[in-house]
Amino acid sequence: MTTSPVADRTIPSTASREVEFISLTHLNPSTELAPIPTRGIELDYFRRYVATLEEAGYDYTLLPYGSNSADSIVAASAVGQLTERLRPIVAVRPNTAFPLVVAQQLATLDQLTEGRAVIHLISGGNDTEQARQGDYLPKTRRYARTSEFIDLLRRAWTEREPFSHHGEFYRFDEFGPGFRPYGETIPISIGGQSDEAFEIGGQKADIFSFWGEPLDEIRAQIDRVNAIADTAGRPHPRIWVTFRPIIAPTEEAAWRKAYDYAEKIGATFRAGSYPKHSRFTRDAPQNVGSQRALTFASRGEVYDRALWTRTAAVTNGTGASTALVGTPETVAAAILDYIDLGASLVSIRGYDTLADAADYGKYVLPLVRQELAHREATGQRGTLQDDHPGAHRPGFDADALAGAR
Fold it and tell me: What is the pTM assigned to this prediction?
C-alpha cells in the first residue's frame, strides 16, 4: 500500500481543465451481482436508467460494444432523444464498419443531439472476440488500422471537396463531401495499454482512456501519452479514468459490502452467466490492460487512498473492474487525487448499476464539484483530501477485515 497525503494547498496546474463525469448505460436490470435472463433491452428500464443519469448530473454515458450486445450507435441515438444534456459516447470497433459509414452515422447522431456525440474506438484486445465478427488481423496491426480509421473520420467530417484514399486497410475513390457534424468535428477517444495504443492515442486522439490503476502508475502513463502528443505537435488529450466505486455510510460498512460484492461477482464470472464475462475465458488475458490489472491485484489489494483490486482478480481482469471503496467522502477524495494528476473525465459506474448511479449523483459527484468550485473561488485546495484518508484511517484495517472474511 502507498498513501498520497496532500502536502500543501497548492492546486496542481495539470488539474486546471473542466472535470466531467461519465457513466455507462445499461439496457436491462441484469448485473454482475445478480444476473437475470433478459431479452437484451428492457425499454422501461433503459428509459429510467438514462433519466437517472441525467438527473444525477452525469455529463456523458458510454454505449459499449461487443459481438453479443446491442448496437452502440442505435442505442446512442436513443439516449440522445431521451435526454436533453447527456452526451453519448459511442464505442466502435474498426473491424465492424467502414470508416466513411461510421463518420456518416456519428455526424447524424451529432446533428440529432446538437453536438453531443463522442466516439470511443476499441481496436480489440481478444482474438476470440474479434474472430466472432470475422476479424483475424493480428493485435499489433489492429492499432495501425485504428490510426487509418481516425484519419478518415476526420477527413470525412472536414474535407470540402471529394477525396480518394488508397491505404493499407481502406480504399475508395472520390468520396465526399461527407455529411457534416453539428460543429466542426466530433471528439475521438482511444484507450489501451500497449505501446501501439500509446503511440496512436498520443498522436491522434482527443481523449485517452485508462482503467483505474495506482496513482504512481497513472501519473507515469499520463506523462507518457502527453510526451507523445508533444512530439507530434498536438494538444495533450483529455485523460479519462474509470472506477467502480463501492460506497457506504462508514468505512467498515463499505469494506464489508466490497468483500460481499467480490464473492458474488466471482461466482457470476465462474458461472459465465453475465454477457460481458461470457465473452472471455479464464486463460491469461491477451490485452495489456487486463494483464496489468491482474499484476496489481497479485501485489496487493488496496492502493493509495481507496483503490481496490480484488474485483479485478475475481473477473480475470475483464474490463474496467477496479473499485474505489469507502464513504462518499473518501471516494470523492480519491477521485480528486486522480484529478490532481490531470484526469478531467472521470467514469464512475457501479456494480449495483441503477442504484449506484443514483447514489453517486446524490453523494459523490456533489462533493467533487464542491471541492472544485472551492478551488476555483479561492485558488486553494479544501480539506476533503486531508480529512478522509480512507483505508489508512487510524484504527481502521482493511487487511484485517479481509482476513476475517
Answer: 0.92
